[in-house]
Amino acid sequence: MDYSLRLVSKKRYTVSEIRKKLSALCRSHPEIEVGIIDEVISRLLELKYLDDNEFVKDYVLSRIQFKPRGISLIKQELRIKGIDKNIIESGFEGMDYDESKACLDLISKKNRLWNKHPLQKQKEKAFQFLAGKGFSKEAIYTTLKSCYSSDREQDY
Fold it and tell me: 42-67 as b/e, with b when 16 or more CB fall inside 10 Å?
């Protein structure tokens, strides 16, 4: 219990992540019984130190604000953390996340680096960059149309 409290005092964890950490602890210290893991996790849940629903909401808000990513990539990151698909979907309910606006913000930061290239190369670089961030094709194409339309000046 002391070990798990030290862990959750430093950062937020999912139930799955804590289970993995405690299992590793039990493997490295044979005197600790494996059966205690469920008791520790249930106690942490009872004390509200672990809550996958809150973790998802906080994680999504943090990702949107500080490291913008596409919804599909955020969902994938949460699945890797061991969170159930239903919990992930419920975490996105009520979120008003405009992927196109996030794409536009990211492109505006990177566009200065790409200005030296021809227009087609700029579009390719922008597409690859945004696709790597997990944005949907629709959001990427909408952003590319608004940023790189032929009738618009290229001083963006």
Answer: eebeeeebbebeebbbebbeebbeee
Residue ranges, the chain, pLDDT below 70: 150-156
pTM for this prediction: 0.78
In a domain, 70, yes or no: yes
Task: Please choose, from the candidates 129, 135, 124, the residue with its C-alpha nearest in 3D space to the C-alpha of residue 69.
Answer: 135
116-129 pLDDT per residue, tens: 888 889 899 999 99
* Segments forming the whole domain that contains residue 83: 52-92
- Count of structural domains, the chain: 3
> Measured at the alpha carbon of residue 126, what is the angle toward residues 114 and 81, in degrees to the nearest 5?
130
Note the pLDDT of residue 150: 54
Q: What is the CATH number of the domain that holds 139?
A: 1.10.10
Sign of CA dihedral 134, 137, 140, 143: negative
Helix (H) / strand (E) element for 30: namely none
- Residues 56, 41 share a domain: no
Burial class (CB in 10 A: 0-12, 13-18, 19+), 81: middle
- Examine residue 152 and state whether it is found in any structural domain, yes or no: no
